[in-house]
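Hey,

Quick one before I head out. I ran the complex with iron/sulfur cluster overnight. Inputs first:
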Amino acid sequence: MRIDVDRDQCEANGLCVNVAPDYFELDDDDELLVKQPEGAEADRARIVQAVASCPKVALALRD
Ligand code: SF4
């Protein structure tokens, strides 16, 4: 699955990073990095949880 970030919506609060730090990271400029844009099927539940944790609805999954 593909992980997309709407950068106009992301406020870099790091909630998704807390849920899935192997997929999301804030860089030194507080910009969200998606470390693995192609999410592994085995990690789907955690990625979905990270997407759901975003209060700005800035994350989306595409299969
Ligand atoms: S939870 Fe949403 S707003 Fe917060 S860093 Fe992640 S994508 Fe950005």
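The chain has a mean pLDDT of 98.

Talk tomorrow,
K.
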